[in-house]
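Subject: Sanity check before I submit

Could someone independently write out the structure tokens for this chain? I want to compare against mine line by line before I put it in a report. The sequence has 252 residues.
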Amino acid sequence: MNQTGPIPTVSIYGIPFSKLTMKETVEVLRQAVLTKQPHQVITANPIMVMAALENPAMMKVMQSAEMIVPDGTGVVWAANYCGEPVAERVPGFELLHELLRVGENYRWGVYLLGSTPEVIQETAVRLQEQYPAIRIVGYRDGYFGSAEDDQVVASIREAAPDFLFVARGADTQEPWIHKYKDALQVPVTMGVGGSFDVISGKTKRAPKVFQKLRLEWFYRLLREPSRAGRMLALPKFAVKVMRDKENVTKVR
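---
Independent answer below. Compare away.
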């Protein structure tokens, strides 16, 4: 499919989620690289939706992104429940790999930003082994403050990647990408959360049975009970959607 024109979306509390399949999403982003059009891709879940509802600055960041994909099962459920279904869940972890698979055909360049020095280095090594035709044009850890932003942006711009994957935590990675998107001039920049931890082998992804049952969030909670506070946003989101059913998908 050659997706032209605006991406079909459903508004969930004012946040425009893409209705495209994984395959269609990859095609849109392939075109973005070919036309050198900077795209910020946000892989969003209910926790991020709830955060945006409480934080106008985060809401602005999300509403101005070129593409928001439904990473969380709860988002897919909400769209369906309100009669505006998305095609399917588009997990950020899988989207990253699909983009690299396509990028191999063009020998596209990738820059990895975030996590710890050990994790980012191991991630670069493993991705290069898995996708030998991809060019890892640079990487650096996420331990830098705002005073170093200009230097980091300059080094990324000099490396001229086609894809920039950023792992700095949802509350910082999306605003950072939004702030520097024009200066970076990277065709596809995407926040990838904990993906580098999984790729590097530091943490394990949920077993297939949890993925199939759409319970990856529950597996993460079992492994990291400290996430319980954040996870409370999931039932709150579900209750809110059921209560607001008629108004969830109204464009704000």
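---
OP: Matches mine. For the report I'm noting this point. The mean pLDDT is 91.
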